[in-house]
Fold this sequence. Notes:
This is 7,8-dihydroneopterin aldolase. It comes from Hymenobacter qilianensis. Helices cover 31% and strands 34% of the residues. It is an alpha+beta fold. The protein has a four-stranded antiparallel β-sheet with strand order 1-2-3-4. α3 (53-65) runs antiparallel to α4. The protein is elongated, with a radius of gyration of 16 Å.
Amino acid sequence: MGQIALEGMEFFAFHGYYDEEQKIGNKYGVDLYIQTDLHAAGASDKLQETVNYEVLYRLVAEEMLAPARLLEHVGHRVMDRILTQFPHVYTVKVCVSKFNPPLGGICRRARITLKRKRAQNAPQNSDN
């Protein structure tokens, strides 16, 4: 078992509870952590034996393009996509931050963190 992390991804997106936020947009940050078996990749040195970082990044970028009212919703969409696309991923943790949220005062960022484990009875793909 091992962890793959993509930390510090930044996007300009149009999320927010208020209509104005969805019109003007804002800067967001995403940190992604997945747990999967990394032994085969470590032994073979072959990309197809692991989760491709570029594919993970593109998946997050695509979800960041689709406006949402809540950061929680964006995070759930990211987790859903990863668990659907990568059946050999056991857990997903995603942190989504909104920089300089409109709170009426100084706040560098608002951040949510979500974590999900794959259901035990879900079919596992041993092909990676």
